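Make up an example, fold above all:
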Amino acid sequence: MRLLFIPVNIDNWGRLMKILLSLPMLVVACFLGIGGHVSLGQTSQLSREERDQIEQERIRLEDRLSKINVNADLQADARIFLKGIQWALRYEGKLDPKDAAVVQNALKRAGQRVDALAEGKPTWSTRRDKVVRGFVSRVDGSVQPYGLIVPAKYDTKRAMRLDVVLHGSSKPTGLSELRFLSRFDEGDGVAKNAPDQDFLELHPLGRVENGYRWAGETDVFEAIETVARNYKIDRDRIVLRGMSMGASGTWHLGLKHPDRFVALGPYCGYVDTFEFSRTPLPNFIKVGPLPSHQEKTLHMLDSVDYAANAGVVPAIACMGEKDVFFQAHVLMGQAMDKEGLKMVNLISPGTGHVIDPITFKDQMRRIREIAERGLDRNPPHIRFVTWTLKYGRCHWAQVLGLEEHYRRAEFDARIGEDGAVEVKSAKNITRFAILPPAWRGPKARLRIEGKEVILPAPGGKSLKPVFGRRDGKWVYLGDLDTLSLSGKRPGIQGPIDDAFTTPFLCVRGTGKAWNPNIRAWSDASLKRFAYEWHRYFRGELPVKNDNDVTEDDARKYNLILFGDPGSNAWIAKALPKLPIQWTRAELRLDGHAYAAADHAPLLIQPNPFAPGRYVVLNSGHTFREKELASLNYLLFPRLGDWAVLRVGAKVPANLSDPLEEDVVRTGFFNEEWEFTR
């Protein structure tokens, strides 16, 4: 493979652009960068008066938009501009002329889309070429943008391949949304030069900068579903790819959801925390050694631990020969070797941390060959690895219980010549389900480690049978659709940070607290979380007072309860169902007692008011602004499933400053959501 390197200057810019424009749009995006600015003639810095005028017009457009009767997706398509303006005005102090033009253009574009919706003419919904659109997040009700590239040959009657392209690292600023939108927004009219490619291209924002973890991970899948509602996509040909942080996200999401994508295309992405943090760059922060509870949760995040799943979803990786992050793909290659797999890693001679057009073209050619075959949803052999029930599904098999979280679990099964499902091994697994099409109804059979498991009537008619260990033997437990699973289970497995990846509601206590220190600290904790969520997860924190929370809220959301049993009625209501004792004088958990005057519990548990939801006490994300504003690989859990904090009443003047709090103890609940004895 040879390297094409063209220094970018006035004389050869045209030559470079001809090369880039002959390739899919990702190349152009990577060269121009996510942080590109748009200058639209406005050259003066925004004055306070102009800011106020923009804000007033933004509010007017929001009000007008709310009265237009169109579906949520079309509403979001206009609201993304208004949301971007709001964040820019709040978090950007002085706006230079180019940035001021971006804000003013966003106001203009919002007005155009509101006008079009009022007239019933959302022309962007049928536009070819680049278009910016949005969706309403299930997590927090916020509007999140995505870019879409619709090729000239897109046909509404024929399902088309979808490439999900994850962007690289971009420090979060007030202008993050608007700069992102400017990459894809070229108006809503008919395009003259839509790309001649055979796939749609989805570019999610993913909450800007989190490595596509937490709510950023949820956003990627919600963006896919939004595109699927509005365009005809082939779900058997969804490709996931990206550059830099986008490549890290590709490894992360692709290997942990190996049945969702037909192929992966990571280009220069990190795969672990410890080794990556040792990259010799001046701004990098070395991680490790860590407390054992933090090291455990790295197995939830580090993609290198899921290398075996590349046997399910093929990956065509690329890396520059002189990339400072070269070691990342070496690590993944070594991990695949241990799993008996061979990593495909296209190395671009002489290049650093950039996309080489020739290497990229080869990567896309190989991906196309795989995508044309489509996804095999009923593979005869499945072998996959997980470390948490959050990532336990692979085609026709789903892990439903573990002996221990954050310890390697491996499932290896195949469909025999007689049609029976044969499970060779289920390591660190206590229960699992076999799903259609592998499970063929009443005549289906299962053998585990050579022994046939009998399905008693009416279990023999089960469509999604669940099997578990009892007294050292594998037995049939029931059907997945009707069986009530106890203990840790998919979606209800922790740790605390997992509660903010699905719909949640923070509940503020309005009663009289038992102890003033706890009241002051819990109120400050909630305010800090609201600030961090708004600035870094790009949404308004969902909050209600305890006396306004309804039974329906308790069923729909993870309840995040702040305060103590005196101040928060929902804590008092949940307390009898939680594995702690909490009185005015004393806090007891895990066999230890603490003075309630200056100690508070943080924990996550199954919601006692609704199946499939969490309840959390006194915690937002366990990482803080220090990490959120720094490097995305630092966004790993700082606590387990529970902790005891010694707290004080001193409240800092700035929301981002540390609170008066110290972790006394922390750990994990066992697989039955109990303290380990």
Remarks:
- The two ends are 58 Å apart (CA to CA).
